[in-house]
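re: ur question from yesterday

yeah so i grabbed the chain u mentioned. its 295 aa long if i counted rite. heres the sequnce exactly as i have it in my notes:
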Amino acid sequence: MVINKHSSFYMRNGWGTKIIQAVDFDPYIFSPGREQEAVDYTGLGRIMIKALRYWSVAMGLTRESKDQTGIVQEQTAVFQVLKKSDIYFQRKGSLLLMHRNLSRNKEEAAAWYWLFNEWKNDTISKQQFSDAFYPYLAVNGMSIKKAAIDKEYNCLRNTYIGDENFDLQKIMDEDTYPFLAPLRILYVDDRKKVVKRSLTKKDVPSEILVYCIAMDNIEESRNGASVSVEKMVEENNQAGKYFNMQYSKLIEVLLEAGNKGYISLNNNFGNRYVEFMNIDYAQLLDKYYMGRQES
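ran it thru and got these structure tokens back, copy pasting raw so excuse formatting
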């Protein structure tokens, strides 16, 4: 696991587009030897380029490897879908996918994983984060100074929450608006605590939810098997955790998905199960992007 690899530069509006365009232009662009080229192409400073490289991998847009030429960024399937259908991240489904990937990435985005999978409460303060995340890292073999924990909290918070007094258009132009702020999955309450909002059918399109569930349970979805709704709600790295969806709200979206023929939602003595159909669930993303533009 790593923390602070982003150098305290939180993921900002416009950076997703910069990543896709830069990597598509040159898969080696984030190599140390291509630093000036990356600066010229993206318009960002050298330290921000390193942060961009981090976010590209942490959000699952690229997989990183090394060869004789340098460090190469391999485009993932999600990268290619977004390049084709939503390169400017205008659809909330695109942001939901990025949030999912961050929250499941225990190695590269430990704080995001911890908050949405391990932390059991819906509210957290900076002090609570420090007091709980620090021993979690220690148990996992990491010796980190408390100052580094504070920086990680600030970066996590700033990825989702912007200053409500800012002028949105100005912020967007300056690339400082939080990348995932439109989701409102985190917000600050009257006590200045960060709150995890429970997402609902209004927030999560059925195509996005079923795609995520299928990818979370890849063997079951490939083999037409089933997975319990209870598992989706209670186990780490499942949609109920990273979307913070209550059982009843998850059922509402799954019922819609069943009506569309994406899954079969079965009831076995009071226990709800999703049975996967004989379809390519990766294609649900194309179906989503071909649909209505307001979601």
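noticed a couple things. The mean pLDDT is 93. also The radius of gyration is 19 Å.
anyway ttyl
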